[in-house]
Design goal:
The chain starts with 17 loop residues before the first helix and ends in a 10-residue tail after the last strand. Strand 8 and strand 9 form a beta hairpin. The chain has seven helices and 17 strands. By secondary structure, it is α+β, with helices and mostly antiparallel strands.
């Protein structure tokens, strides 16, 4: 079932050129990322308000770091996922563009008397992903570069955040005023190659970091997409929508589904977010769902798929039906906890 927050605009289906993949795998490249939107929160109560709504600790967010977080329905299902950080007095939330309007409207309904205002600043900002051998180029723009994952630096040219490596390549997100970022990017044209934004989608998948887009909004509790492992849930903070269900799943050992990294010999028209998966031994009911998918350099599609843990123990997992294309399960770049 599609979430009421879903946009009716379909996701673009893109297969990058081979040279786009080569740029980030053999050199350095950047992609302007229209698939992301930005919600800015301002006001004396902005941090307190978001702390009461999101799965992570926003109240104690410092100026040197960024955090993953989620926004859940009362049933504990993720409506959206964010990368969240502070820049000046603003708390900035990066999320999938196709759920932004609905999420912002829903959050704004609960501001009530809090001194907080949410604004869509996507048109004022440029979101850029950089991957590969990019540190030398970035050092020409920023006085210092963040070394740890989810560490950030601020500069007049914007915020630079180190995000998890993918396929052994360094990655950074650069978010800043559109004109300033465009000018700086132009000066780096001799060092970095512009690539398709779909390359960034593939890198996110290889990093094992799911993104909640409209096709899968309201389908998963955070643990199903490994957000507890990725640091997107703080289990010591106070209440937020769905918190009781998320906590119960964590502490009662009821996590029977996780997100796996996989590849499949199929096209993006069928290996798409929201597509159901079936196990060879149980063809009558789905065993999982694709969360994110992107064209892979070697052909076919790489994907993140939420799957019953039992379905990964034996037999095979297939796309669309029990006799559909077979998923090849790949190792995640991080370890999952042993489930009871």
């Amino acid at each position: 079932m599609n979430s009421p927050l879903a946009s009716s605009t379909p996701s673009s289906i893109a297969t990058p050129a081979a040279e786009d993949f080569d740029a980030v795998l053999k050199g350095g490249g950047y992609a302007i990322l229209p698939q992301f939107g930005v919600i800015d929160a301002n006001g004396d109560d902005a941090a307190t308000f978001l702390h009461s709504q999101l799965t992570n600790d926003i109240q104690h967010l410092d100026v040197t770091g960024a955090r993953l977080s989620g926004y859940c329905s009362p049933k504990g299902r993720l409506l959206a996922s964010f990368l969240t950080w502070k820049t000046g007095d603003t708390i900035r939330m990066l999320l999938s563009k196709d759920v932004q309007a609905g999420v912002q409207k829903r959050l704004s309904m609960f501001v009530l008397r809090a001194k907080a205002k949410l604004t869509d600043d996507s048109d004022k900002l440029l979101v850029v992903g950089l991957a590969g051998d990019v540190r030398g180029a970035l050092a020409r723009v920023f006085d210092a570069l963040p070394d740890g994952v989810h560490v950030k630096v601020d500069d007049p040219a914007g915020t630079l955040i180190r995000v998890p490596d993918a396929h052994g390549r360094l990655r950074y997100l650069w978010v800043g005023p559109k004109a300033a970022v465009e000018a700086k990017l132009a000066s780096l044209g001799d060092a970095l190659k512009p690539v398709s934004p779909a390359v960034w989608d593939w890198l996110d998948i290889r990093a094992g970091e799911p993104r909640i887009i409209h096709a899968v909004s309201e389908q998963f509790v955070p643990q199903m997409v490994n957000y507890d492992v990725l640091g997107g849930v703080n289990f010591k903070k106070g209440c937020y929508p769905g918190q009781e269900i998320v906590a119960r799943s964590q502490y009662r050992g009821t996590i029977k589904r996780r997100t796996a990294l996989a590849s499949v010999a199929a096209g993006l028209d069928v290996a798409r977010p929201g597509a159901e998966l079936f196990h060879s031994d149980d063809p009558g009911q789905p065993c999982g769902m694709i969360v994110n998918a992107a064209a892979a350099p070697e052909g076919g599609v790489d994907l993140l798929a939420e799957i019953k843990l039992a379905a990964l123990e034996s037999g095979s997992v297939h796309l669309g039906a029990a006799d559909g294309p077979t998923l090849r399960i790949l190792p995640l770049p991080y370890a999952l906890p042993a489930e009871a």
